[in-house]
Amino acid sequence: MYIIVGGGGDVGYYLTQNLLSQGHEVLLLEKSAVRAQALSEELDQAVLKGDACEARTMEEAGVRRADVVIAVTGEDEDNLVICQMAKKRFNVARTIARLNNPKHELLFQKLGIDVTVSPTKAILSLIESELPGPHFVLLMTLKKAGLEIVEMKIPDISPVVGKQLNQVNLPRKCTLALIIRGQEQIFPTAETVLEADDDVYALVNHDGEEELRRTFGTA
Fold this sequence. Notes:
Layout (H helix, E strand, L loop, with lengths): L1 E5 L3 H12 L3 E6 L2 H10 L4 E3 L5 H6 L7 E4 L4 H14 L4 E5 L6 H6 L4 E3 L1 H12 L5 E7 L4 E7 L20 E8 L2 E3 L12 E7 L3 H8 L3
Parallel strand pairs: 1-2, 1-4, 2-3, 4-5, 5-6
Antiparallel strand pairs: 7-8, 8-11, 9-10, 9-11
């Protein structure tokens, strides 16, 4: 697989290094001459000096035969330009963008970026999952299906405690996939009784997320 990485910071460097170790053909684009030279020495010449936001640089990099373009600069605007150009102008099948500001995620999705990765959002989710008390954590977004995978802990005061699942008014597009109760893994059925401190994993569409929070008392 031929992969072009835009942005030669630490993220771009370690990503390129890892992809090369997996046997992929990778080219890292970095616009700083000094940085590009240093990276070239570290990555066995798999580096091209040039601005990944410019079509001429992407042409030189052979973007027309690229399977994936990944934009990991420190600027969301640049990452958007890189991926949009790859997608719309050069018909690259798969684009992945680093998101420095999680608020830009919806915009990137609307503009056709295939995958967005937000380190900030991932760290916040990890921290939230480790905090005591009720929590509701977005684990993953399934863009093509329009669904999210969420984790929530049922608080003691939740209105669903002691109820069978068939007695709970779930959002229309929501499925409870798994319940972790202590060391026990439960694949819920209509008769499953919900208990306080259950860790529940659910599939829900974006519009139903807030309703799910209210239903389980995690809002």
